[in-house]
Write a structure and sequence with these properties.
Layout lengths: L4 E5 L6 H14 L6 E5 L2 H11 L4 E5 L16 H6 L4 E4 L2 H6 L4 H13 L3 E6 L3 H5 L3 H13 L4 H4 L3 E4 L13 H19 L1 H6 L2 E4 L7 H5 L6 E4 L6 H8 L4
Parallel strand pairs: 1-2, 1-8, 2-3, 3-4, 4-5, 5-6, 6-7, 7-8
The structure holds phosphoenolpyruvate.
The site of phosphoenolpyruvate (PEP) has 14 residues, from strand 8.
């Protein structure tokens, strides 16, 4: 059986002192969970998050990285830099980065490869717009994004990628996909993986749902057949609320 992975995406929120207080609180609240807990924090909080999370079951991730290892890329951070301070995860291709920072399927693919080359575990985001959903294009869009993101990756690395299905219309809007819709979308991603890489990989790969997950809907979403946990934005900013999501099955 696949494990459940619950990751928080703080986006551009939280200062170092808030980070320390948050992780001290959260670690007490989630210490008994069997689920995997990840916090993806801003670059400026990474060091403090890593120090505070030492000895707990909370893993720390970044929210983006550049695909080159080093060089004249002012303002960017590489996978090697993240790994050098013991970051374990990195979100790649979040829709906000695709929308506001010109992230493409091609850069997403390069970033996935660079993350593995440096020992980081990528959390790959895919998802359709409302317009695409209303034109019945959702499945085509998310399977294509998945295919292109994983293109050329060594087969044995595919099921180490965590995929987050995040319909763009559900992110930060308070609108959650129904558990049936989210589960069906995730099944279509899993089927695409099955076609490309076979049963073992498809049955092992973790595929999360993201989009206005909160403690009141987490259980219904995460107990479906194919949703393996969530990527949580707004509701991850308060430790008590995020802990309830992590502990959805307790
Ligand atoms: C996200 O940022 O990945 C996200 C899903 O945000 P929210 O939970 O706020 O919709």
């Amino acid at each position: 059986m696949r494990r459940k992975v619950i990751a928080g995406n703080w986006k551009m929120n939280m200062l170092p002192n808030e980070t320390i207080g948050y992780i001290e609180s959260l670690s007490k609240l989630v210490k008994d969970t069997e689920n995997e807990v990840i916090l993806c924090v801003p670059y400026t909080d990474l060091f403090y998050a890593l120090m505070t999370a030492q000895g707990t079951n909370i893993k720390i991730g970044a929210q983006n990285m550049h695909f080159e290892e080093k060089g004249a890329y002012t303002g960017e951070i590489s996978a090697k830099m993240l790994k050098s301070i013991n970051v374990e995860y990195v979100i790649i291709g979040h829709s906000e980065r695709r929308q506001y920072f010109a992230e493409t399927d091609e850069t997403v693919n390069k970033k996935i490869k660079a993350s593995f080359a440096n020992g980081l575990n990528p959390i790959l985001c895919v998802g359709e717009t409302l317009e695409q959903r209303e034109s019945a294009l959702a499945e085509e869009v998310i399977t294509k994004q998945t295919r292109l993101a994983l293109d050329g990756l060594d087969d044995e690395l595919i099921d180490k990628v965590i995929i987050a299905y995040e319909p763009i219309w559900a992110i930060g809007t308070g609108k959650t996909a129904t558990s049936d819709d989210a589960n069906n979308a995730i099944k279509s991603i899993r089927n695409e993986i099955r076609k490309l890489y076979g049963d073992k990989v498809a049955d092992n790969i973790i595929i999360q749902y993201g989009g206005s997950v909160k403690s009141s809907n987490a259980k219904e979403l995460f107990e479906t057949s194919d949703i393996d946990g969530g990527l949580v934005g707004g509701a991850s900013l308060v430790p008590e609320e995020f802990a309830k999501i992590v502990n959805f099955n307790n």
